[in-house]
Amino acid sequence: DPTHLDEARGFLYRLWSERGHIEDEIATLRTALERNPFDERPALALVDLWTRELEYAQALELLDGLLTYQPRAQPLLRERARLYEQMERWERALEDYDTLLRIAPESREELVAPLAGCALELGDRATADRYLLGQPARSIAQLYSKHGLGREALALLEAERDRRPDDRGLLTDLARRYRESGRLDQALALERRLVELSGDRAEDLRRLARTLAQIGRRDEALEILVEVILAMPLPEELELGTDREKRRALSRAWARYSDELEEIHNLCMELDLEGRFVELASTVLERRPADRLLPGKAVQYSQWHGDQSVEAYEMVRAVRAATLPTGCLLYTS
Questions:
Q1: Which of 14, 89, 179, 191 could bond to 84 as cystine, CB 3.0-4.6 Å?
Q2: What is the rounded (10 degree) CA torsion for 295, 297, 301, 304?
Q3: What's the pLDDT tens digit per position in 45-80?
């Protein structure tokens, strides 16, 4: 796995750097390579070390030399292409990736992104689009954005939406791009559609609340967050005398619910609604008075914000007096 290999090399590099062993390791790798020039492992490790040391010229010289007598060695070609990318020598990188594609056409899927990316860096969108032919629209849009073609990426996704109006992944991506570009009304329309498609899924409702708050419709955002909490199932009462496994499972369920309330509170802070969390909690409790955790959370959050809310304390007192049965264990934060 290239990702794991890069992580392992990075770890070794940091370790050798801390111990002052970089030069020793370079000498060891050179010796191994001289012993067997056809062994790609020391060559690639040496190139990696030099690259991390920003010694690009030495790394490139080694790869050029090795590829003169084994020009179809795919790991060496791939490493040189990546090195050219780091050096922003896009034309040479494109040549190496194209050579790899001719040698191993079965690797097309993993080569498409770097091939198209190099072409886009060269300003050759026609060539990039030729490589990208048949790729998913969202993948192409992501690549366009990475290379500074955000407007083209948005236009591509808008065209794709006309063909696939109910694709959740596509609509989510498009709504995010609308938000990032300040087109909040369009983002809001898509987020409402996502809620319809998902049947009020909490994640979609939270996104909708965020956009409503951003355009100044804070009361509506608060109403949405009430619905998010009400959509969370309450764990059943944790009674004394139940078997150990059930007690543990219910305790974990209360902990999960606590984490979800924490997420709602964090979103309120993000949207400058933290001062209205007690109001939100009161609305929830009017419709679901059996919620024993929410009042305590409201008190906790009001304390965090330096607001010793009388309403929050009264809420806790009322809920405990009215609904807390004798002999019941209550999960508290």
A1: 89
A2: 120
A3: 899 999 998 899 999 999 999 999 899 999 999 999
Q: In whole angstroms, give the CA distance from residue 178 to residue 56.
A: 40
Three-class DSSP category at 238: strand
pLDDT tens digit sequence for 208-265: 998 998 888 988 998 998 988 888 877 765 454 457 777 787 788 888 888 888 888 8
Residue 79 and residue 74: Cα distance in Å, rounded? 8
Half-sphere exposure of 271 (CA within 13 A, CB side): 28
CA–CA distance, 3 with 69 (Å, rounded to integer): 28
Helices (H), 53-149: 56-69, 74-86, 90-103, 108-121, 125-132, 137-146
Q: Rounded distance, CA 288 to CA 195, Å?
A: 22
In b/e form, how buried is each residue of 177-216, taking b as 16+ CB within 10 angstroms? bbbeeeebebbbebbebbbeeeeeebebbbbbbbbbbbee
**DSSP letter assigned to residue 276:** G
Name all contacts of 138-141 with Cβ < 8 Å and 24+ positions apart.
138/169, 138/170, 138/173, 139/113, 141/173
Chain position carrying tokens 């990736």: 97
Burial call 317-328: b when 16+ CB within 10 Å, e when fewer: eebeeeeeeeee
Asked if residues 211 and 177 have their Cβ atoms less than 8 Å apart, the reply is: no
> How would you class 16 by CB atoms within 10 Å of its CB: exposed for 0-12, middle for 13-18, buried for 19 or more?
middle
Does the reported pTM lie above 0.85?
no
b/e code 57-78 from CB counts within 10 Å (16+ = b): eebbebbeebbeeeeebeebbb
